[in-house]
Amino acid sequence: MSEPVVLGIESTCDETAAAVVQGRTLVSNVVASSMDEHARYGGVIPEIASRAHAEALVPVVSKALADADMTLSDIDAIAVSAGPGLAGCLAVGVSGAKALAWAAHKPIYGINHVIGHIAVTQLQFGNFPPDVLALIVSGGHTSLLHVADVARHVDVVGTTLDDAAGECFDKVARLIGFPYPGGPHIDKHAQSGDPKAIKVPQGLTQGRSGREHPYDFSFSGVKTAVARWIEQQQDAGREIPVDDVCASLADSVATVLANKAIRGCEQYGSGTLIVGGGFSANSQLRAKLLEVGTEHGIDVRIPQLKLCTDNGAMVAMLGVNLVEAGVAPSAPDFPIDSSMP
Ligand code: KG4
Ligand code: ZN
User: Fold this and answer.
1) Which of 14, 57, 69, 120 has a CA-to-CA distance to 224 between 20 and 30 Å?
2) Which cofactors does it use (predicted)?
């Protein structure tokens, strides 16, 4: 079979994105973001994001096709994120993708966005070995996944019991006074701070009590501990050592994520760890994963930044995997699923 050409469309949160992937080659990649419109509210406002998708979808898809020097007739299939995400946002991307598929008589695949974050690493590192583990970390998800076959079979090994890692960073950032999204500001300040300056607990290093499950995460206690410490300093009239707070928080979160992911690889016999999601842009996490990975002989595959954050390439890449695996396309009226597991 010649290499499948897939148009991928993404609209789960605040990025409207489209890309064309042919086999393992990224042919075009266009991303528009409504982040600036949300910043003054301190978080993504679903209604604003949905409207922004409605405005951006046609121009973004048109540009992705134009950049690829293609028309819809050159495409073998369309893939679109059907969940998890904000319902109104998903509805815009999925409706648009269905309309294009119907008009151009192309098969359509409604895909799982989180699995797209895993699939996209193939564009940089090539196919992954069988039975690999993946750590997907963003503002909305923190999951350790076992990938038996990216097109057909992915299992959850561990997940966050409360806040996602990015969410924890964003909440602490707000207390410090950084604009939304605060994660990248914490990253930057952490680079000049002392990671051992403040004692930050490591969220759930072993398992939750009662039901032992060593690969789950919990970051809400970490956030509360840092918040309490900041409050105490303020009450005592002391200045907040911002860089040290950021470095200590980043060290705690990166250490627990890296240790659990690498320990998981050892238990599951996976010599490779796939990493993805917006939070994998974090320098402290990247450094810690590479350090612990090298120590334990695990090949850690963290893609370049533009493939970590939400994009259409991840959707198109997973679409290519589905076409190659001979998976049947979705029904023309497939639903969105904002809490897709
Ligand atoms: O995957 P993503 O773009 O959107 C979601 O699906 O959530 O991830 C966005 C999250 C935000 O919480 C943001 O603060 C965090 O990733 N983030 C970072 C960094 N870059 C993005 N957190 C820490 N350090 C960074 N460099
Ligand atoms: Zn994402």
Assistant:
1) 14
2) Fe(2+)
